[in-house]
Amino acid sequence: MTTSLPDAPGASPADDLTPMLLAAWQKLIVNRSQPYAVQQLDGSYRWIEELCTLDLLAAHLRGEMTLALASADAQGMCKWVCLDADTPDTLPQLVALRGVLMKLGMPGVLEASRRGGHLWLFFAQPLSAREALLAVVQALSQARPRLEDAGLPLAPLEVYPSTGSVGMAGTLAHAMRLPLGVHQLTRERYPLLSATGKPIERPSIGLQLRWLLRQPRIRLQAVQALGQKRLQTLAALPPQHARLTSPAALWSPPAAAAAPDSLAPVDTVSPMAPTSGAAEGMIGTRSPVIRWVDAHISPLDLLADDAPDSEMKQAGRGYLGWCPFHDDRAPDDRGRPGRPSFYVVCDRRYGWSWRCLSTNCMQSLGPMRHAFRLFQLLQEVSPSTAIRMALSRWPVSADEEEAQT
Ligand SMILES: [Zn+2]
């Protein structure tokens, strides 16, 4: 589905992109102005470490280039959430979803895309992505049965910002291609859609943009009410969903870890099969939330967020930093200066794992550990409390696991 709009540079109808209009657009859509991503002719994107100016936003609208912008800023705040449906012929479901979300206090703007569509949810004010996602996940869980009743079951959706990137200081959130641009691979401009799924016909891109800017935004009260409901639902769930098909069960038994006395050649730390806290008898069954955190959350992001003093730096195949669980900054018995001893590595087969390399530290004992264990230790809480905290920090985690099983 495309609209025919003059997209040649200098075409007069594009000249209604006034600075005021562009500034309003920037205020609505730009979470962080640096870096921005530019779509290449093959449809891929390249990040550019420069400011995304009003001129660039205008060039995107005129079809001279195609921009994608980060779905959250460096502090994990977002102005919008974008639901991306890549399944072909999924527009009727998205139109119905938009209607249901609207009734739940979450009005959205629908845009056709190459394969399916994007449902943009614009907030009246910037929110923490965590808070925004909690509300969106709650709204989706309420919408799903209604759409099924209507014979329009919801196709799989990708949600941006994604839970994996939420609240991780310093990480760059997934970028979304901005609406109203020209897709570089297909050279097509995909239209905004009305409540009934009809393309919004306007004689110029400026008028299309004005239409978009007039659409209702989601109010903070609606976000908070939905988020509250989500937390209540989660609190009512049984603490653990026993799953016997843990991927960890398929892994080779953890090798006994030889604790190296010296840090010198980190490259020689042998890859060890990591275990999670559950495998060490802390809890009888592996919760799907533990599995989700182990599979999706990087210990580096947890440390950056909850133990920034660890100052993790690349060291050989892995990363090395100051241990959050013992004082490795202190000089040793012979007065030699302390050295970073907290080791994190991402193994192609076992994923992320970590341990301390100092024999002075409890966290040097036994095999490599996974992300959930680190999360729990950094929060200094019990496994069941950590599961509840994980659910509110990464609200989609349980739903994703449910969807996969
Ligand atoms: Zn340590």
> How many structural domains are formed by the residues?
2
- Looking at the structure, the CATH topology of the largest domain is DNA primase, PRIM domain
What is the CA–CA distance across the termini?
34 Å
Based on the coordinates given, report the CATH architecture of the largest domain: Alpha-Beta Complex
How many β strands by DSSP? Answer: 13
| Average pLDDT, all residues | 79
In short:
It contains twelve helices and 13 strands. With 405 residues, it is of the alpha+beta class. It is globular and about 80 Å long.
How is this structure best described in words?
The model is unreliable at 3-12 and 238-285 (pLDDT under 50). The protein folds into 2 domains: 12-233, HP0184-like (DNA primase, PRIM domain); 247-404, Zinc finger, CHC2-typedomain (DNA Primase, Chain A), CATH 3.90.580.10. 32% of the residues lie in helices and 16% in strands. With 405 residues, it is an alpha+beta fold. It binds zinc ion (ZN). Zinc ion is lined by residues 323, 325-326, 328, 341-342, 356, 358, 361, 363.
